[in-house]
Amino acid sequence: MTPNPADILRRQRARESAARTYARSFPIVPVRASGMTVEGADGRRYLDCLSGAGTLALGHNHPVVTEAVRRTLDSGAPLHVLDLATPQKDDFTEALFATLAAGFRDRARVHFCGPAGTDAVEAALKLTQTATGRRGLLAFTGGYHGMTAGALAVSGNVAVRAPVPGGAAEVTRLPYPYAYRCPFGVGGERGAQIAAAYTERLLDDPAGGVVPSAAMILEVVQGEGGAVPAPDGWLREMRRITAEREIPLIVDEVQTGVGRTGAFWAVEHSGVEPDVIVMSKAIGGSLPLAVIVYRDDYDGWAPGAHTGTFRGDTLAMAAGAATLRFVAREGLAGRAAAVGARMTSRLDGLRTELPVIGDVRGRGLMIGVELVDPQAAPDGCGARPAAPRLAAAVRAACLDRGLIVELGGRYDATLRLLPPLTITDEEAEVVLDRLSDAIAQVTAQATAGPHLAGRSS
Ligand SMILES: Cc1ncc(COP(=O)(O)O)c(C=O)c1O
């Protein structure tokens, strides 16, 4: 039976909650997928630069993943056993620990969480609050950590936090070094230095309003925040500042992990050793899996302290172990660094021709292209106002051209490219051709017709 895409879209629109997300921006009905190509029920094919919000390190249905799943199914292994010991869990843990830096691995503990990144964030916050006996949390502007209460409280986006009354924890928001829109109006390396100095002074100010901190949580490259990379030196400063005050450092690698930024774990770029790493998305090889890995001296939990029914899905552990080993064996982090650098450089080169591109940034295959109103005056750092309506029009124009690209960042004005690490050179060129063509067309329409550049409709 050939599904009728229009009927499916209509029925799901009518029955699903108002909170439905990606289905709004991408009204397609995927029926087959392989690598970075997704085929819709209408027969159209798309290059997928969203990759399940950074989940699909190997693209869709990679043979390494499908064979691991098939092998496990054929073996008769139980698919669900709560958190009992299984050969699949043992093998996944072996594969995961092999990816950790030696010093960290030797003293690491893993906790299997409910299968979403947000539950692993909750676990990390709870672990450090239990271990330190403190309740305060340090988090960053622009950060995103998930949708459950604790994870939401440490996220920056006011639009998603504001409608939820109350709040689980006392959170101090610190400035993230976002060079293009520097919180101090300075930008560059200097802006990051000021952000670090401000953090240190605030923590030591007895009247600064900061309650004793159970943890600092950060992303090495902010994902939903618009592919904003933090300088390595700033991260080293955060490590020094937290270590000197005995505050555990939680690095949220839910989106940056498994090679995406050009290192297996993004924190490796800086040489920093965190206390807790939060992992999800790619570690399950397309299937739901989330864990925290942390230093053993924080393991002060009582049995059942962070329990849950779906903590370690057998198929996800098999697919995840196969993915972790493949990424390591094939050197895909290095490949992400090389292809990402080429893509970023070509995009950067388009800025003169397409002045709507305000900033091109990222690390490895986590790339952000921030669109701005080229006619508006720049601020003191040279940044022009964000152009979210134009960005939404570019996203739609990309879809028309067979390219799936999602938005993120402040005002949803940043096009985020998260292709699989297996993207070929040819696919990377096609992605950039379609993207630049879409931006050029939308810009031309905006210049000729009704103004698309502003923030409000
Ligand atoms: C850095 C980061 N942390 C946590 C999460 C939450 O993960 P999940 O959507 O699986 O709950 C996300 C999701 O995008 C993320 O990017």
Characterization of the model:
- The chain is of the alpha/beta class and 457 residues long.
- It folds into two domains: 5-62 and 331-448, Aspartate Aminotransferase, domain 1, CATH 3.90.1150.10; 77-329, 3-Layer(aba) Sandwich (Aspartate Aminotransferase, domain 2).
- It has 15 helices and 17 strands.
- It has helices at residues 5-15, 22-25, 51-54, 63-75, 87-97, 102-105, 117-132, 149-153, 158-161, 188-204, 232-244, 314-329, 332-349, 388-400, 425-448; strands at residues 30-34, 37-40, 45-48, 108-112, 136-140, 170-174, 213-218, 221-222, 228-229, 249-252, 276-279, 291-295, 357-363, 366-371, 403-404, 406-408, 414-417.
- The strands form four sheets. Strands 4-12-11-10-7-5-6 form a seven-stranded mixed β-sheet, with helices on both faces. The protein has a four-stranded mixed β-sheet with strand order 1-2-3-15. Strands 13-14-17-16 form a four-stranded antiparallel β-sheet, with helices on one face.
- β16 (406-408) and β17 form a beta hairpin.
- α13 runs parallel beside α15 and α14 packs across α15.
- The longest helix has 24 residues, at 425-448.
- The protein is globular.
- The two termini are 42 Å apart.
- The site of pyridoxal-5'-phosphate (PLP) has 15 residues, from α7.
- The site of pyridoxal-5'-phosphate has 15 residues, from α7.
- Its cofactor is pyridoxal 5'-phosphate.
- Pathway: Amine and polyamine biosynthesis; ectoine biosynthesis; L-ectoine from L-aspartate 4-semialdehyde: step 1/3.
- Keywords: Aminotransferase, Pyridoxal phosphate, Transferase.
